[in-house]
Amino acid sequence: MIVWKRACRSARPSTRPLSSRRCLSQRTLDGLERPVQSYISTSRDPYLNLSIEHFLLQKSAPESTILFLYINRPSIILGRNQNPWLEVNLALLNASGHDELETEPPGLGIVDLVRRRSGGGTVFHDEGNVNWTVICPSKDFTRDKHAEMVVRALRTCSVDRARVNVRHDIVLDQGEHALCTDPEDTHSTPYQLAEADAIRPLKVSGSAYKLTRQRALHHGTCLLSSPNLNIIPDYLHSPAKPYMTARGVESVSSPVGNILLTNERFIAAVQEQFAKLYGAVDDAKDVGDEWREHSPVCKGYDELKVTDLPTTI
């Protein structure tokens, strides 16, 4: 029997008095015209963070460049063209359905299921994963440019095994020190071995993109200290997949691992490399729940919440 439920209901209208609501100031909105901008979210709500990201893409000045960093509570983020039945163990997402499972669930409780507006594969977010976004003019965009920026940030934190692979993901090489390479080369490390002897690198950051006529958005994950690595496969393995054929983009499985950096150190390193790449930038602006009261962000939030994605089988 198949039971369909909405992943989440639309948020109810705020019951707080108007006088107590925090709204975006005109100064904040005027800041969207600055040539270089940086934001850090104080929210762990994936619906809000993805809505703020989309708002920045749509409303910032066409020639501006933006860095946005955020951390989500446990959630599964689908690419816009993916089929959840093929990508996710939907039964695990609804804590109320645990009595129907044949095996003990991993114990995370309810995990949000969100379909983002960009392409790419399905990823698992939690508090040990920092998400980074760069928005820039389309004419300045390449698929490696900002992944390379993140690799340079990791190398300043002594993560010298990090590199960008041919799929534009960031991986950690696992071989023994064997080569002499240019330290400025973000696509190779001294730990790469001959293909016949190679140990598969660990994927630590995947990428997805959204391109418009004037703007380009590149966002990625970065696994730093996730406590859930051992159970992520439980969520990202669909028991229905062997029995289904369907349209949509399938994820490419890769071994993953933690970098073992604190969120704070990673964020500071990425901010530093972003400033080097694009010039002086004001201190990062904190964004959070007050953006939920801004009408365009609220609209995007409600659109993500009303997805009719199934959460139990």
TrEMBL record:
<dbReference type="InterPro" id="IPR004143">
    <property type="entry name" value="BPL_LPL_catalytic"/>
</dbReference>
<dbReference type="GO" id="GO:0017118">
    <property type="term" value="F:lipoyltransferase activity"/>
</dbReference>
<protein>
    <recommendedName>
        <fullName>Putative lipoate-protein ligase A</fullName>
    </recommendedName>
</protein>
<comment type="similarity">
    <text>Belongs to the LplA family.</text>
</comment>
<dbReference type="InterPro" id="IPR045864">
    <property type="entry name" value="aa-tRNA-synth_II/BPL/LPL"/>
</dbReference>
<comment type="function">
    <text>Catalyzes both the ATP-dependent activation of exogenously supplied lipoate to lipoyl-AMP and the transfer of the activated lipoyl onto the lipoyl domains of lipoate-dependent enzymes.</text>
</comment>
<comment type="pathway">
    <text>Protein modification; protein lipoylation via exogenous pathway; protein N(6)-(lipoyl)lysine from lipoate: step 2/2.</text>
</comment>
<dbReference type="Pfam" id="PF21948">
    <property type="entry name" value="LplA-B_cat"/>
</dbReference>
<dbReference type="InterPro" id="IPR004562">
    <property type="entry name" value="LipoylTrfase_LipoateP_Ligase"/>
</dbReference>
<dbReference type="GO" id="GO:0009249">
    <property type="term" value="P:protein lipoylation"/>
</dbReference>
<feature type="domain" description="BPL/LPL catalytic">
    <location>
        <begin position="61"/>
        <end position="282"/>
    </location>
</feature>
<dbReference type="GO" id="GO:0005739">
    <property type="term" value="C:mitochondrion"/>
</dbReference>
